[in-house]
Amino acid sequence: VVHPVILCGGSGTRLWPRSRKDKPKPFLPLIGERTLLQATLDRCGDEALFAEPVIVAGSAHVCHIADQAGETATVIVEPAAKNTAPAIALAAALLPQDAILLVSPSDHHIGDVGAFLRSARAAAALAADGWMVAFGIEADRPETGFGYIRMGEAIAGGHRIDRFVEKPDRATAERFLTEGGYAWNGGIFAFRAGAFMEELAAHRPAMADAVRKAVAGGRYEGREFHPASDPFAGIEGESVDYAVMENTHRAAVVPAAMGWSDIGNWEALRDAREGDEAGNRVRGTAELVDCRNVLVETDGPRVSVIGLEDVIVIVDNGEVLVTSAAGAQRVGRLHGAARQ
Ligand code: GDD
Ligand code: MG
User: Fold this and answer.
1) What's the total number of domains in the chain?
2) 146-205 pLDDT, tens per residue?
3) Does the C-beta of 10 come closer than 6 Å to ligand 1?
4) 103 has pLDDT over 80
5) For residue 326, what are the domain limits?
6) Does 99 lie in the same domain as 9?
7) Same domain, residue pair 221 and 286
8) Is 38 in the pocket of ligand 1 (CB under 6 A)?
């Protein structure tokens, strides 16, 4: 069986005003009726393949997890937010060392769950052989917010990773696309718990040591596991991509053509949702006349739009956001988003 490890961190600036600090992206039903966290749990619901999930989250969000996941998961409550390498390491140190972990963010959309499960099986088989496995997404634009994977020699179900470059600058990303043979890192990983701890100890020994101590000194409260906060507090926060994936020599990638989106902003969310014939997407009460590719979402007031294309209107809890689709990337710069 495979142990799902679900990362539930993150702030709520890029999908402001719907996503806010106290209730960020994973806890909102942004695509269908289920929240992104619930959809992530649903994907790992097949008991023939998956063990009960472990969710790693901060204490501020434990209440939302209890509401949405109920009694279906163990929650590791992080003493502090230290980015993804320590968060994953908490789960890897807590679970049996021969357990195969499937690490997933809880703020992504996956359109084709069947394809996800096929990649998950291939990744689990490679992980059992000791590989640190990433999910490779077809790269179709020089996005700088992602990790880039250069695919090497073919191995069963995937490829060796020749090179892993986290968040390259624009010119480098453009060069990778021209060169070809690169995939984006989807942020989903599979490995044996013990293999991860070995790689972490090799490349970030202080972090591995502190996490082991935090887990050894931790305690259960019902379904919650609370690591000891002292050793954890001293950790220098770093993502798994920089700490492990850029450095390990045992990295592999499985291709994952699964309708993946990280829903990084309102434009990406619009594109992940089903549109009508004119490409408009509406939630709530709205009237659109002669509009194309317009996204409207309102929690109350009626929104009326005439003659616009590629425009986004969000009304939520007394805040109104109006932006061009292209401007959606800059929402984080707004005072409202920054000062919530
Ligand atoms: N529990 C916990 N604690 N979760 C965290 C923490 C933390 O301290 N920090 C981040 N996370 C969660 C986020 O909520 C998200 O679901 C996931 O871990 C990834 O973190 P991001 O901060 O969103 O990473 P990123 O988007 O900059 O980059 C990663 O994802 C890209 C794909 O979306 C990298 O893995 C890239 O290489 C990758 O391309
Ligand atoms: Mg992200």
Assistant:
1) 2
2) 999 999 999 999 999 999 999 999 999 999 999 999 999 999 999 999 999 999 999 999
3) yes
4) yes
5) 266-338
6) yes
7) no
8) no
Q: Between 205-216 and 193-203, two packed helices, what is the crossing angle to 10 degrees?
A: 130
Atom of ligand 1 nearest to the CA of 82: 8
262 CB near ligand 1 (under 6 Å) = yes
Q: Specify the amino acid at residue 237.
A: G
Give yes or no: residues 293 and 316 share one domain: yes
- Residue 100 near residue 44, CB atoms below 8 Å: no
Question: Which of residues 204, 230, 261 is at a domain's end?
Answer: 261
pLDDT at 100 over 90: yes
- Strands (E) in the chain, as ranges, are 2-8, 54-58, 74-78, 100-105, 109-110, 132-138, 147-155, 158-166, 182-192, 219-221, 224-226, 251-255, 260-261, 281-283, 286-289, 295-298, 303-306, 311-316, 319-324
Q: Which of 61, 84, 161 to mutate to test the pocket of ligand 1 (most atoms within 8 A of CB)?
A: 84
Going from the Cα of 153 to the center of ligand 2, the distance in angstroms, rounded, reads: 28
Q: Are residues 202 and 280 in the same domain?
A: no
Residues 143 and 273 in one domain: no
Among candidates 128, 236, 265, which has minimal Cα distance to 190? 128
Cβ-contact 51, 209 below 8 angstroms: no
Task: Give me the mean pLDDT over the 257-264 stretch.
Answer: 95
Among residues 205, 239, 261, the one where a domain terminates is: 261
What's the pLDDT tens digit per position in 185-198?
Answer: 999 999 999 999 99
Nearest CA to ligand 1 atom 21: 10
Q: Are residues 69 and 128 located together in one domain of the fold?
A: yes
Do residues 253 and 273 share a domain? no
